[in-house]
Fold this protein.
Amino acid sequence: MAADASLPWKLYHNPHFLSDSLHDSPHLLLAYETPTSPLRPNPLSTVMDDLALALAEISELRAEVDLERRMRRAAESLAKSVARELADERRARADAEAEMARCREAADRAVREADEDRRMLKLAEAWREERVKMKLAHAAIVLEERIQEVASNVIMQKTSEVDCVAAAARNGRERQGREIENPHIRRGINGFVEFSRAFRVRSPGLGRDRGGGDLECERAHLRVLMK
């Protein structure tokens, strides 16, 4: 009651004063209105107008604050989503770089293996050519030796044939000389046709050997004459 009794004095000395009870219950202000003259404005109505204007501004500011709060929340949510996308993009980029590094390493390894295979193929080709050359050289040496052997055999055969022919010719000349010097032939030439039978005694082994040698010489002589 003391507070209610002191209100008119406060209103009289401080027209802009508003207590909490009056702010909560604006209709109580009507009980303390003082009669004013028509020419003098009522300060309480001015205060009420200012209060209504302030409340309207407060409502507008509250709406703006709510809008800004919602916009801030939306911006924060967008920032979080952008941050998540950026993190995902960074992880994907790191994975892509790692995969690229692995692919590059695999490509380098494949290139090195290809170069090594190419070098080994060249080396194997060189070894193959060298082996073929060695085989050809060996074959040429063997062929030359064979040709020399055949030539030597032919030369020896020709030499033996010539020796046999020369021996046969020499034997023929000796036989003719003996026949001419034979006294029986001379007697036949002089008119005597009487011949004494003579037997030549030869050893069995020597006869066979000499007969075989004469036969070979005759054959060689015939071959030479037929050429």
Summary: Residues 12-84 form one domain.
